[in-house]
Amino acid sequence: MSNLDRQAAVSVCGGRGFVVAEPVRELLSPRRVQLGESTEVRRLLPNLGRRMIGAWAFVDHYGPDDIADEPGMQVPPHPHMGLQTVSWLHEGEVLHRDSVGSLQTVRPRELALMTSGRAISHSEESPRPHARFLHGAQLWVALPDAHRQVAPHFEHHADLPVVTAPGVTATVILGTLDGATSPGTTYTPIVGADLALTGGTEARLPLDPDFEYAVLAMSGEAHIDGVPVTAGSMLYLGCGRTELPLRADSDAGLMLLGGEPFEEEIVMFWNWIGRSQEDIAQAREDWMTGTRFGEVKGYDGPPLPAPELPATRLKSRGRVR
Question: Which residues are annotated as a binding site for Fe cation?
């Protein structure tokens, strides 16, 4: 999914200096952003108070939207570099096309994982006909410098590992949770999991104390380490946790996001992640001149133009251990 904000801002993210090295409870509120003509999303990362969670660098939550009489999601071809996109649905379907020839309908609780590497473009749209409701999340994972130039590719995994406990069903989207490992390709220590809680549940989820974590509420309301978190908001949890107390008085859907703190600082502009002004400027030129990012075939409409770069110079202050 694209960042369609025509007033795209530069984000300098990552680096160990931004990491809270102990457990915290920091509630993040979303910013509402219009995506295309008919979809509004709640943007939770980057956030005014929090830029990354491990390698997770971008989180949009949308729906549930009644699109029975609407076109639904309609995101024209647009470019990506330096990142992976993770598409995750609770309701509806999304048709994915990309410049490496992928054509895939993604359905609820199936992993659509696109690794942009050096350059890729794609489109996303609600099929015709489509289900009445659309509800999901779109996330980006920053690629570490050593893997930023990998060949672009797309993965679709309909069969993901599931971990269960009384009142909790956890589908492992990326990485490993409680011994279960997703088939999705990762390039940095990371975890993503979909948590379905039934009403009346009290449970403790095992965590890695070396990871930083956050929980996104997809639906319902749950108490995360004692903090009530409602749909469309996210609770940042910091590091140093070995377990996470969960409680739901009624059914709730959550996403657990975590990973080893990302040690590199990055520059994120529009739909690109780079390390410098030159990275971003070259990506924009290549996209606008029709080189490098390939062509998305089969989409009925023109590609998205890139926004203008800001007048101030983009800076990346790289920081490694």
Answer: 78, 80, 122, 124
